[in-house]
Amino acid sequence: MTISQPKAMIHETKLCYNGFFQLKQHTIQHNKFDGSQSKPHQREVLIRKPTVAMLMFDPKHNTVLLTEQFRIGPLENDSNPWLFELPAGIVEKNEDKHHAIEREVLEETGYICTAEQMIGEFYLSPGGSNETTTLFFSRLTLLDSGIHGEQTENEDIKTHIMSIDHACQLMQQGRLSVITALALMWLKNQEVK
Predict the structure, then answer these.
(1) Is the pTM of this model over 0.70?
(2) For residues 39-68, average pLDDT
């Protein structure tokens, strides 16, 4: 199977918002799959720094650690705004991704762990954001839950140690972030092999 590489170009960019995130509006034009060219049109894109996430797995007890915290997106949709997620965070300028995730895990969970394996890098919402998340995996003994977070960032994060099956039930309830659901599916697939 041949994967085509159509060309796209940005003709003009307008910065609509510049805060914790940026919002840009681009006037774009791109080649279409039939070989013709699209009409110039506008698209908005939310600009975010890259992020990292860690799947923390205890093989002896077959458990994972998930964080629970308030998220504004579900509140906008009138959904329960406390989601279960993997420990995760933003990669700071000039920071190595391995260092970033190990720092975030310590801040959000109190655990010191090593990013043993990179599972992959993923776009979370490519229709409207440039954000990518690099997903890492670590095996460790999970013993303690608690409340954590960086106070200067107004974080209030509760950790939960749970079976993989219980975590997957949260997926059916719409209580997981997409990267967390992806990580759990990856882990379940590893058990089959």
Answers:
(1) yes
(2) 96
